Amino acid sequence: MKKTIMALSASLLLGGIASAQKVDFEEYTLNNGLHVILHNDSSAPVVVTSVMYHVGAKDENPERTGFAHFFEHLLFEGTQNIKRGEWMKIVTANGGVNNANTTDDRTYYYEVFPSNNLELGLWMESERMLHPIINQIGVDTQNEVVKEEKRTNFDNRPYGNILMAVKENLFKNHPYRWNTIGSMKDLDAATLEEFQAFNKKFYTPNNAVLVVAGQIDVAQTKEWIQKYFGSIPKGEILKKQVFAEEPITKTIKATYQDPNIQIPMLVTAYRTPSMKTRDAKVLDLISSYLSDGKSSKLYKKIVDQKKIALQIGAVGLSEEDYGMYIIYGLPMTPATSADLLKEIDEEVVKIQTNLISEKDFQKLQNTFENQFVNANANVEGIAENLATYHLLYGDVKLINNQIDLYHSITREEIREVAKKYLNPNQRLILDYVPSTEQAQN
């Protein structure tokens, strides 16, 4: 009886969480192609104004890598009506914060203001879209900023270029083969006209989604959106180029030398399908099972029990066209990278051969339920998720029902997907080793 009551209580609690987390939204499209999503949340007097553009590193000229990330900086320089250096001052003076980020697939800008400054946020984002000032002063200034970012976060940071080394070996044709931050040589060689052309091509209303989330009056918000965005001219209709990669059928072996490290790292990586596929979700569960925290299979076996690694982990990077599943480890002397690889492969074979236990499976379901709830726990997260589900997945409703897909995955599917993608002849083995050479900028 006690167990029944406890189970019933847990069921009611989970039901309450799921209900509380339902995100209500309204979406429509302006005549110029700008897609708009509104989410009214009166729980706190704040509002997020955000614009996500469907442009990332994969949309760049191979000889001009880094443009998308560069614009993440450049479009804070100023506009025809916001003087250079004034953008941040306006935001902070009105009690707000703002930021931007870039991936291989999209670029995202946002402000968080007290709700009584919603009109200001909309005006600023419309200024960024319609009236950006792209001149040589701004380009030169941000060029130095990006160079310093690359030195700090990549070139001079221990293990800072792992992702770059993985990408350039896993992808031979697709633009995912270069890092989002790009090449400083490419940026130095670019002309002002090339930056202006990039802006004109990609930073258009029909290549973007505007999300307004928080404490809003929906009718008034719509009026302001039409006022500030409605007259922005539609851009050219973009036809995204499709890049296909040949399947990996033989182990790729590579070495990368890092002058900032003393301990070598084993990195093994697999190319995986688009984040929009069901298999990508199954691989998310596999990654969590193997390496999510100190209770994961790899950590308990390799770090805790056998003590042959200082660190072990795995990460799945799902993107619009392809993904990557990366497992990495730092061997502890006298163990070697080969020793780590042997232990990792044994755990992968177990998943491919046997069904994971019911207990482990339920733990995975609980973990992803918790992650789903936390992803929509604040208005900033909701705004970005709404934009992402529309722009990259093509289905905003996933903000409420993506978890249902994870719940529908079976233990048998986990076994079959592991067999499909995680085989020795389908992967990269990267020896990431110390070097005495100086880092290259």
UniProtKB/TrEMBL annotation:
Q: Which residues form the signal peptide?
A: 1-20
Which protein family is named in the record? Belongs to the peptidase M16 family.
**The keyword Zinc is annotated on this UniProt entry:** yes
- The Peptidase M16 N-terminal domain sits at 36-177
**GO biological process, alphabetically ordered:** proteolysis
Alphabetically sorted, this entry's keywords are: Hydrolase, Metalloprotease, Protease, Signal, Zinc
Q: Name one GO molecular function term.
A: metallopeptidase activity
SUPFAM superfamilies documented for this protein = LuxS/MPP-like metallohydrolase
The name this protein carries in UniProt is Peptidase M16
Q: Where is the Peptidase M16 C-terminal domain?
A: 190-367
User: Which InterPro entries does the record cross-reference, listed alphabetically?
Assistant: Metalloenz_LuxS/M16, Pept_M16_N, Peptidase_M16, Peptidase_M16_C
